[in-house]
Structure formats: C-alpha cells, structure tokens
Amino acid sequence: MEASPEYAVQMHGILKTFGQFTALDHVDLDVRKQTIHAILGENGAGKTTLMNVLYGLYQADEGDIFMGGQKVSITSPTDAIGMGIGMVHQHFMLVENFTVTENIILGDEVCGSAGILDMGRARQKVMELVDEYGFDVDPDAKIQDITVGMQQRVEILKALYRGAEVLILDEPTAVLTPQEIDKLIEIMHDLIAKGKTIIIITHKLKEIMQSADECSIIRRGVYMGTVDVKHSSETELASKMVGRNVNLTVEKTPAHPGETVLQIRDLTVKDERGIEQVRGLNLDIRSGEIVGIAGIDGNGQQELVDAITNIVRAESGTITINGEQIQNTSPRTTFVKKVATIPSDRHRWGLVLPFSVTENTVLERHADDEFGAGITLDYDTMREYTTQLIKDFDIRPSGCEDERMSGLSGGNQQKAIIARMVTSSPNLLIAFQPTRGLDVGAIEFVHKTLIAERDRGAAILLISFELDEVMDVSDTIAVIYHGQITGTFAQGTVDENQLGLLMAGGEMR
Amino acid sequence: MFANLILFLGITLMYSTPLVFGALGGVISERSGVTNIGIEGMMVVGAIAAAAGSYFTGNPWIGFLVAGACGALVALLHAVASVSFAADQTVSGVAINMLAPGMAIFACKRLFDGAAMSPIAPKLPKILGENGLAGTPFASLNVNVTTVLALLFTAIMWFVLYKTKWGLRVRAVGEHPAAADTLGIDVYKVRYVCVLLSGMLAGFGGASMTIGIISQFTQTAISGHGFIAMAAVIFGKWTPFGAYGACLLFGFTQALVIMLGGGDFVVPSQILSMLPYAMTIIVLILFVGRSVAPKADGVPYVKGSR
Amino acid sequence: MSKLEKFLRGRLAAAIAAVIIGFAISAVVLAAAGYSPVQAFAQLFRGVFGKPKYMANVFIKATPILLTGVSVAFAFKTGLFNIGAEGQYIVGTVLASIVGIKLHLPMPLQVPIVLAAGILGGAALGAFVGWLKAKFGIHEVITSIMCNWIAFYLCNYVVMSDTFHKPNSNSALPVSSSSYTMILGNWKKSAEGKAFLKGIPWLREIMLKTDLNYGFIIAVLVAIAISIVLTRTKLGYELRAVGFNRDAARFSGISVERNIVLSMLIAGAISGLAGALTITGISPHTITLLAAMESYGFNGMSVAFIAASSPLGCIPSSLLFASLIYGGMSVKAPTEIINIMIGIIVFFTALPGIMPVLANRLAKQRREREAAAAGKEA
User: Fold this and answer.
1) Cα C99 to the chain's mean position, in Å?
2) Where do the domains of chain B lie, and which CATH numbers do they carry?
C-alpha cells in the first residue's frame, strides 16, 4: 500500500529479530486517521513487539514507518512522543509511590527556574486535562491507592499531556470489569471524536467487535491481513488468529458433586503492609465440582490462595480440608493433605527456572524415598518419572528431561506444573490464573485437564481475572469483592453484567 | 560533667562525618537503583587521594577535590559493570572493595618511598579557626569544616531529590526504570550520573577521615566505615536526613569507644572496639523490616524487559 | 554453533579471559608506575617455580583459600553471599588456638578436637548471619562485614588476654605439639628421617624448610564432599532450590528459613576449618595480634568467583591465586600490585557479558556468511 496522508500510521515491511528468533517477519500495518484499529494475535504473536517498534523502544531491522504519508524515523520513545504517539502498556508504567500528577509530568516536568519543580502549576495543568476529557481522577492521590481503572486513565492522561494524536493501548481490558470496559470504550469513542487515532492490541474478540473499525491480524510474527470489523465475525477473526477452526466453547458434562472437601469459615488475612485483604470470607467446595471465583485483581484473591497454601498466616477463621483444619500449618502440610496449587505467577511460585525439567518435576516430592534412599537423591529414578510425565502431558520438546526449565515455552512450563500437581491426585486443586499468557491450544489443554480432574472427583478452585474463563469453566461462580464472597451462582443462572456489578462492589437488583 | 557532654557531642559529630558522606553516596546510588557495596573501596581511595593531594600541594582543599574525583573514577568502574554490562552489582562492588585498597596502598608506597602510610598532611580548617572557642567549655564544638559540609550536602541532596525535576527522575528510575524509559528519560545516563556522584561523595568521606580527623593516610584509616554507612542508608530509609541521623548514632558509638577507652575503664579496649559493629547489627535488627528499599534497587535495567 | 563459539560462551573462557585481562592491566599499572612488567612477571614466575620449597609453599598458601573459596562457592550456589568467610576463618583460628593451648591429649584425639573447635566457631558465626537473614531479612553482606570486624577484635582480645598471651610477644601461646598436622612432622626431625632425606635434596628442602602439612589434602576432600552434597543429595537439592527461587521453594513445602541458616552454618564451618588448619599446620601454631585483615576470606571470594562457584573448580583456582600471592612476594614492586591484579580479575568475572558478546559477533558473522552463500546458490 502507498504511503498516504489519510493514514495516521503506516508500518511497511517491519522485520525484527532477537538473536535467532524472528519476532516480526515483514509485517505491514495501515491505520486510518480517527479510527480505532485493533491488532489481533495470540500471546507471543508479536503484537506488542510491533507497537514497541512504533514507540521507539525497539528498532526494526528492516522496514519503514510513515505518519500522515511522511516517512519518519523513530529511534527512541522521545522521538515517538515528539511525533504525537502515546502508548499505554499492558503492565502500567506508573511509579507506585508517586502521585498522579508526578507520574503525568515525569520526563516533561513543569519547572520554575533552575529545574525546581512547580507542583502548583503542574497540578493545574493536570486538572485542565482531567476536566477536558471528563476523567474521574484525583491528581494528588498516590498510584498505589487508586483502582486499576483509574490507573489506566492516568496512563491515558500521560499520553494526552504530551500531546499524543495516536494512542496505543496494549491489552487495555485485561484487568477491567465489564462496566469499566464499557466506560473505556466510551472514552475511546470520545477521543476519536476529538480527532485522535487509537490502536488497541488485544486477543479478545468480543471487544474488537464492540469497539474497533478495522482489525489487523498477526500470527507468529506474520501479517495475516486486515479486515473490516463490521463485515466480519468472531469465528472468522478467531480462525485467522489461530490458523485453524477453533471451538470457542468449553465442553463438559454436568457436575456430580459429592462431599464437601474445602470449607472456609470467617477467614481473615492481612497483606505484607498489615492491611486486611480477606475479610471474614466463607467458601465451600465439594468434590467433583469446579467453583470459579470472579473478581478484579486485588480483591483478596492472592491472599486467599496464600492462606490456603500456608504461605501467609491467617489472622482468624478456619480452613478445613476433608474435616481437618489446616490453617496456619505449613506449605508442606497443605501438600500432604492433598491440596495442589497451580500458582498465578509460574515463574515466581511454580518453577525453579535454572533447574532442569527433571529437577522441577520433583519439587514437592524430592524427599520421598522413591527418589533416593536416606540423604541421597537418585537422578535416574527422577528422570524416568519425568519421562513419563513428559509423555502423559505432551510436554515439548520431548526428551527435554535435562533441559533447563527456562528454555521451555510458557505453555509447556505451565504443562509441567500441571503435570506435577495432577499426578499427586489432589483432593483439592487450586488453579490461580491457570491460562495467563498461554496460546489458544494450551488454554484448551488447561481447561480440559481441570474438567478431567473434576470428573475424577477432585474439588477445583478456579480463580481468574478473565470473566469469560470463570463463566465458561465453572460449575458454580462466586464473586469476590473486598475480601468477601458477595454472591454465589450456579453456572448459567447469571450474566456478565450482573457479575460485573458485583465485582465492582455494587448490589444485585 | 557538662564539659564532658560537650566533648562527647564534638567527637560524635567528628566521627559521624566520614560516615555521612559515605551514606549520602549510598542514598544517591541506591535511589537510582544501583546497589553500591563498593562505597568502602571508594572511601579508601578518597582517603589516600586526599592525603596525597594535600601533602603535595600544601592545600587541603585541593586534596579534598582530588579525593572526590578519584572516588568518582573508581565509581566509574562500578557504573560500567552494573549499568552497561548488567553485572551482578554485589560481585562488582566486592571486586571494587578488593581492588581499591590495593590501589590505594600501591599508590601510597609509590608516592611515599615504600611507606604504607603517608606523611602528615595539612588538614582542612576548623570552622572557627585553629583556636576558636579555645579555653571555653565549647572548644570541642569547633568542629572541622567537613562536618558542616556534610550537613550542607545532606540538605542539598534532600532539595535536589524532592524539589527538582532531576530528583523526580532519579526516584522514578530507582522505582520503575521501564516507566522512566518510556517517557524518554535515559535510565542509563541517570544511573551513571548517580553512581559517579556516589563515588565522589564516598571520596569526600575518605578525605574527611584523612584530612579532617587524622592528618595522614594509614592502612586502617577506613575500616568498615563504608559498610556502616550502608547500614545507615537502610536505617535512614534511603532518605538524606534519615541517613544523616543514622550516621550520628554510629558516630555516637565511636565517641563512646573513645570516651570509655580513655579512662581506667574495666572493659578491655578490644571489646570496646567491637561496639560500632555490634551496634550496627542491633540497629539493623530493630529497623530493617520497617524500611522499604527503592523497588528497582540492585536490579540491572535491560532495555525492553520489564 | 561452532566449537569456538561454544567455548567462548563457557565458564572456562570467561575465567581465562579475566586472568589475561588481569595480567594485562597490571602490566600497564606497573609500567605507568615505572616498573618493568616483564621483569615483575619473571620474578613472579621464579617466585613460584624457582625452587621446590616455593612450590610446596604454594600448596600451603592454597589450603586456607581453597577452603574459604569452597565456603563462598557453596553459599553462592545456595543464593547467599558469604563475604564473612574472613571472620569465620578468624574465629576458627581463635577457637582452635584456645582449645589447642588448653588441651594436651594424644594426637589422634587432639587433632580432631582442635579442628572441631575451629569448625564449630566458624559454623556459629555463619549460622548467626544466616539467622539474621532468615529471621529479620537483613542482607548478609552487611552483617557479615560487621561480624568480620567483631571477630578481628575478638582475636586481638584473646591474644592480649592474661590467660593466653605469650609474654613479650605479639602472639598467644602456641598450641600443644600434639595438635600439629605437618606431614611426618616428628619423623622428619628424627635422626632416621634426617638421614633418609639427606639423599634426596629436593624432598629434604620441602620437608625441612616448609610446613608442608595435610591441610591441602583435607581441603581437596572437603571440596569433593561439598560438590557431592550439592549435586547428589536431598539437602543440596533443597539448598539450591532455595538459592535459585526462594518463593517457589517455599511454595513447594521446603523450609526457606531453615535452609538459609543451614547453608550459612555449613559455609561458616568450612571457613572455620580453614582457620583451624592454619593453626595446626603452620608455625607459629597460634594466633597473633592482627593489624589488618589477613584477607584469607576475601581471597577465598576471588577463588570462588573465578571458579564460577564450582567447588571442584576452586581447586585449580586456589592454586592459581596462591601462586599469585606467594610468587608476588618475590616481585620487586609494591606487593599490592598482586591485590590489584586479583581485584581486576574478580571485576572481570563479574562482567558476564564480555565473552558471550564476542560469541554473538562470531555467530552473526557466520550467519551472514551462510546467508551470502545461500544467496549465491539461488
């Protein structure tokens, strides 16, 4: 396509390699002025890399960038900002212990003479912006004290403060409630009306259908084409993204719950700062049942899991597994009582990355006699055991027993954790954000495994910030807000908007 | 009694001064996200540089400036390793602590005919002249000018960190370098400048020992002061005035060693000498959990990773 | 990947490069200070290989730094920085001396008890630092340094105390001679021994002019044992898991606090043994008044770094550093040049990036060549 002034941004033939790996293989992108343009692709497809090239964080090996038909050279974020490009990263780029105003002016400070900050005038400038765009943000609040939705608006303000005409939003809805998503879409349309152009990076089809005008698709670093969203469908986008027909629904039979396995009563847990994050929470899960917890990040999910797994102390209340209290014992006891956990952050909690795959598969069980008598460790037995897991769970590459865990892809790392947890035949399986950062194939695998474990008779606690996942996989959906369960529903008896309201602390009418 | 208290205060201020410079160096470096265990080594280099500079020029102020420059030069090594090469900052700091005393004594022997200590060098002046307040009970409050400089530098660093755009940027880089990077702030440059400043301040710290307190360089002039200064950084919650206060406390224990050691006290001098070090551990036990380091402290920044 | 590329990415290349750079920069420093680097290095070489007794002394010098090196390497493998090997070494010498002076048992009992005292002292100090870290979260580097100085003054206190001080000297009383660990210590001084050695001049020189002792053999055995513990036992597995990823270890039921204390305890024990072996193996067989740190612990860190924290790798690297330190005494320039050289070597081992950067450049050239070749074919 020719460079033309009709387009806010055009990227032609972008090639970007990291060592041996080709992240972007001559990708094209043409974004019309005053439109919302979605970039769709699976995790790791190269969407964010492409935008980091546009924003000057990476330099392309080959390819040209045009803005308004003019060829431009962007070698740093400073260049990008100067050309009116603003980017809101998926993981917010906000300094937590700074105020909103400090975050917005950082790098483009309002100063009196000699570099001395003029915070009064800075605050005023921020207020002007807040009023102009009708954002609900307190300029004096510290980032660590405001909601995720507000943090996102601060990020957008940061870009607008620098005069951005083109806004890149990287996975903007990942952490928002349905209502906040609606509000964001409203804001985006408002910005378009004020003359801005928006690029959103996402792997969520529904939001593209709701908000975008056009959608460009990238698969494994290769540009697959651009479609007019009005004349397309979710299924078409999905198959273009994955490269095969995908089944978007989760298949399962009705649950047959048995005895209560997990019983939590009046549980209270404090975080590191001494603030109560779980406040008198009650929860029951029976064998053969998946209970999904819907909620926004930061409402006590992490502390709930930490308390069950005995990573932190419970202030008060009881956690009972098959009639035995396990609160305030030890992580080891939790495991002995047959509670297995797929942690939310697999690199932090789940794996020892510099260890080999073999060493990782026995993290919980290395002390068992099976893996060596007395004080010794029998690597041959460990390797045999691992070979079996690799086969059973299709961990790739096959024959990776002695590879370092860090060398495996995210999906295969997750499979290794799941293999470890499932082979212990747990009574309770906790899955905390089990599909985070995985591609469609791996997500399907995780969901199937959870359902298979349920059918074996395990109680499953699924905690996810992806509302769709909770609604699709769970037999029972519980909403967590402010450290309490504020509502419990059988699957199919509640819709997204109702859940969204509860997740945001509203009442159900 | 009163005279003794004044003397005590005077000695406390005197011995806290090298620590204050070292601690300020720690604050500026760690606030930008670079752990600097090499403060000790940079102080040693500053100590010899000051003594030599003062001895050869006859002007202690030149010695003081040379000490700052040499400290910064050593810090450049740490900056190259920890900022440009994303090296393990602890290892790099430890290497500097091995390298620096070697260089200092090598230089000393080279300059002073094989002696491991320098000749007596001119000292920096006292604030009220050599005999200010002499004869009054307050004579020991006529402290060396470095003591005043240390307080002045503390105030300046506080102002720069909290009231200027550069301070805002330094703090942002230490907390969330990627955020700063996306706003066009050169993380590497900020860190280089802070580490170099840290070395300069540590150099001044060494100088305030050799041409402020004693008047020559010896092998033991700096013995663990850099590490006590690092403890002061933690105790002082990474703020300039907090660190200053912590250094006063450590200076106080040194004064205690000297005051108690002077009399016919039953505690042997070797046991007394342990006091500052034991005190540091006790203070850390009491306070370490309660102060939070800058989030990115000690984490090398690699462009493009979060 | 070509063989050269693979080699350049390896640890050995990094170590060799660091040593070469260390020599090169030291040469520049020497030249700048007006000494001839060629002469200095020749003196260094002769100081190591010039006489049989020099070589024996290298092994004697290597003993403590091999052990402190293993101590540092072991701690490092478990995610801890044992900068306190120096203090643990000193406490080892102090306790070994105290026990050795007071006890007068026959040798088969005396030696193990004296060594155990040193081990215990080092272990206690190490465990204290580990406990401070596990319980209060205080970085072990700062507490270790403080403990080094406390150990330093403790040593001086014991030397000067009424009970142990040897009158009119700078040292404590020597330990009883049944504590000695020299090789054939009694035999070589007997008439029979002297007669035998007369026939073999090089052996005579080593036996009679040096304190050649069993220390190095013990140290090598310790290095091997630690290597096995780390790679072939459940304890080693747990310690490494905690070292690599504390959170994942805790999550999987491993007690992080216990392992931190245990790791520092073992590291301290090894350094304490180093101290005890110095007392039993080398005259004057007691502690002396310290004017400055003896640097056995700090040199151990250099040994460990260049061995990339492999306990077995510490064996050759301790010999290298012992050669530098011992041979360096023959250099007719300020001996600190050796400290500078060691500092530079450690500094460059801290820069992991240099050799891989070179390897990447080679790889890129190769890819370009291949691409060009492929282009020609097409």
Assistant:
1) 24
2) 2-125+139-287 (1.10.3470.10)
